[in-house]
Amino acid sequence: MAAVSLAGATSALAGVAPERASAAQRLAWGGTSVWHWRWETFQFAVSGPGVVDIWTTCRPKFTALTHHQLLVGPPDSTSPRRINVPCDRQGHWIRRVGVPRNTWLTVEALALTRSGFVCYGQCATGWTSVYTSS
């Protein structure tokens, strides 16, 4: 049973692997892939030059969804950095996002409608991976 689960997880991850990650990048943490209105990475420690590269994708379940918003910051931040990315079934790189060094961060993604409202419920599926430079 565990082998079947592992094989399923591996094949699921193969479909969301980012294109053109450089050899100098190292995966800091990945996200979730579920039909939902939000997904996020687990907390991860940032070290190095104080920048990260984010690869993200969003697959809308409804045509009213046009983009997703990444909230980048410490887990309990009241004012995270907000980055809007199309929700168009394509992978997108957001390069060299400045982050505080030697701190814990998380990246949360929210599915948004054309009007800019958060779509609560089973609106989209997505994946977000964060890379740090080595």
The CATH architecture comes to Sandwich
Helix-strand sequence: HEEEEEEEEE
Shape: globular
Number of strands: 9
**CATH fold type:** Jelly Rolls
Largest sheet: 5 strands, antiparallel
In terms of per-residue confidence, which ranges show pLDDT below 50 for 5 or more consecutive residues?
A: 1-15
Overall mean pLDDT stands at: 79
Proportion of beta-strand residues: over 45%
Span between termini: 36 Å
| CATH level 1 class label | Mainly Beta
Count of domain modules: 1
Portion of residues within helices: under 10%
Class by alpha and beta content? mainly beta
Describe this structure in words.
- With 134 residues, the chain is mainly β.
- The protein has one domain (25-133): Jelly Rolls (Sandwich).
- Helix content is 10%, strand content 49%.
- The protein is built from one helix and nine strands.
- The protein has one helix at residues 2-14; strands at residues 25-29, 38-40, 44-46, 51-60, 65-73, 81-86, 91-98, 103-113, 124-133.
- The strands form two sheets. Strands 2, 3, 5, 6 and 8 form a five-stranded antiparallel sheet that branches. A four-stranded antiparallel sheet has the order 1-9-4-7, with no helix packed on it.
- The termini are far apart.
